[in-house]
Amino acid sequence: MVVKGWWWKFSGVIIFLYVIIGGLTIPTRSGITKSQPGSAQSGESITMSVEGYNTHFLSAGLNRAWLKLDSLYAIKAKNVNATSEVDISITFDIPKNFPATENVQALTLIIDNEIDGAFVQPNSLFVTLSDSSYSDKSLWINAEMKAFNKAKGIKFPYRNILNETIRNTFFHVALWFAMFILLIIGLYHAIQYLRTGNFDHDIQSSSFNRIAIMYGIFGLITGSIWAKFTWNTFWTTDVKLNMTAVAMLIYLAYLVLRGSSSDHDKRAKVSASYSIFAFLALIPLVFVIPRLTDSLHPGNGGNPALGGEDLDNTLRLFFYPSIVALILLGSWMANLLIRYERLKEKIFMK
Which residues contact 217 (CB under 8 A, 6 or more apart)? Predict the structure, then answer.
């Protein structure tokens, strides 16, 4: 599948430059990295010390805060005092009575100002109830709060722990998507070779597979670096990571297999057959087995991935173009390999 013309190569370079420049320069939204204390008793007054991320508590002037119970009830801050751009203390009077029967209630902290907009920290405070009755509603407000400020400009979502590493989505995740597309192209040509016996299909299959394997290795490297920042280790016993590593070892064996025979016909037939096996093994290893067990990795064991909580519209502006760019650049590199292998074959035939 050799694509002719220069426009798609030029497009791949331009799109990838767009991803790199925009993806690395657009700021992340404001968030909350830490808040203390994390627990309280109903009926008491507490002062929470909050540490923000990319916040402008002093510059904003007016900061507002709430502790939200659910869609109906919330507690408004009694006093909000910013001590720096990223540090703020918030005083709340915790009601003695809660509109709930559970002994422990989780409250979500919401902070809002004109510069940063509104941002939250789920389950920031756990309140132990001393009275299960609900008679005094004076400290509760209607939680259908409106007139929140909105941060100006395009900003990436803040995700606790990920922080700035959320930008790796454009590279680590996009590499895997592009790898699968290239492997599918390689699989198609492997099947075509077995069906027609045309040796050119073997050349194209091996070329696309090689670039896909390179993408897979880069995917493992970028994922390992990401894990160091988020999980504090380069590798874990997580099933997703181990199954992916096994899948890549199977494909690395494909390269060893191709170099183990000097017989062109034998090598082409064995490689094509093995390419089909490797792809069929890849599906359960990467998509099925990790979903059957708990996993730290997003997308497995009930841990979401690429949903509204992980991939918002601002990330999509760069994530999907990154996949397109990597596919185009991978196809370009594969085409260069194809031309090189065809040239070698012509020399060999002479």
Answer: 248
